[in-house]
Amino acid sequence: MSGLWGHGGAYQEWVEFLRRWAAFEPVDPGALPAVDEGAYDGDTMARLTAHAGRALGTRLQAWADALVRAMEAATDEFSAGRELAQARTGLQSIRAVARHPGLPERLREQLGELVDRQVPDLQAQLERSLEEAARAEGPDTHWVEQRRRTLRDNALTRVLAQEPAPPAGQPSSGPRADAWAYDPAAAPRRRIVTD
Questions:
Q1: Is the pLDDT of residue 5 over 50?
Q2: How many CB atoms lie within 10 A of CB 137?
Q3: Do 74 and 83 meet the contact criterion of CB atoms below 8 Å apart?
Q4: Angle value at C-alpha 38, between 34 and 42, nearest 5 degrees
Q5: Per-residue model confidence as pLDDT tens digits over 90-141
Q6: Which pLDDT does position 183 carry in this prediction?
Q7: Measuring CA to CA, which residue among 58, 13, 44 is closest to residue 31?
Q8: Cα–Cα distance between 73 and 114 in angstroms, integer?
Q9: Sequence-separated (6 or more) residues with CB below 8 Å from residue 130
Q10: What is the pTM of this model?
Q11: Is the pLDDT of residue 45 over 60?
């Protein structure tokens, strides 16, 4: 028996992508191959599902933590609304990986539903924390009412009505995302605007 191993195919590429993506390394989901479920046994598909679940969980948690920090730091309703809009864009990139066309259909559906179930929960959590702030605020509820309106006018759940953005390198079937929006869990970047 030889000590050499061949390439692990689509499974190996997906696992490597998921590990790097969960570690916030720059990766291109558009270059991922399709996983043929029939080419792998049940244990291998279970491992791929576990890798995908962990990676999505890591990215969702980082996304949620970054959003909560950004909302706490928002000094006015314009800033809060901008953070919510940008958070929806960041969520779209997570949804795009969960529903990547290279994944088997059944896995795509499971992962997509897993991600989509988190969105109303986080929206409700933001609104609950606002209610707690309202109780602590006392009689001056003007700020609380403004923030409540901002949360509802810029609801995270609006992203669920949109088709997930296609992976990088693949054509989009719908309107393009705002070029100024960003993934709040991604590494910081600079944008230079010339006159």
A1: no
A2: 13
A3: yes
A4: 105
A5: 899 999 999 999 999 999 999 999 999 999 999 999 888 888 877 776 656 7
A6: 54
A7: 13
A8: 29
A9: 144, 147, 148, 151
A10: 0.75
A11: yes
Q: How far from 33 is each of 30, 93, 110, CA to CA, in Å?
A: 9, 18, 19
> In this structure, what DSSP letter does residue 35 have?
P
Cα 62 from Cα 160, distance rounded (Å):
19
The pLDDT value recorded for residue 171 is: 45
Amino acid at 135: R
Enter the tokens of residue 157.
């759940």
Residue with the two structure tokens 């996983």:
35
Would you state the structure tokens that stand for residue 190, as one six-digit string? 């600079």
- Both tokens assigned to 143: 């700020």
Q: Given this model, what pLDDT does residue 175 score?
A: 36
Residue-level pLDDT at 137: 66
State both tokens at 12. Answer: 């190996």
Joined tokens for residue 159: 């992203």
126 C-beta neighbours (distance < 10 Å), count:
19
Q: Judge whether residue 186 has pLDDT over 50.
A: yes
What the block records as the tokens of 141 is 């509820």
At which residue do the structure tokens 């949804």 appear?
Answer: 95
What angle, 0 to 180 degrees and rounded to 10, lies between the N-to-C axes of helices 42-73 and 77-98? 170
Q: Give residue for tokens 């209610």.
A: 131
Query: Under a CB-based contact definition with an 8 Å cutoff, are residues 94 and 53 in contact?
Result: no
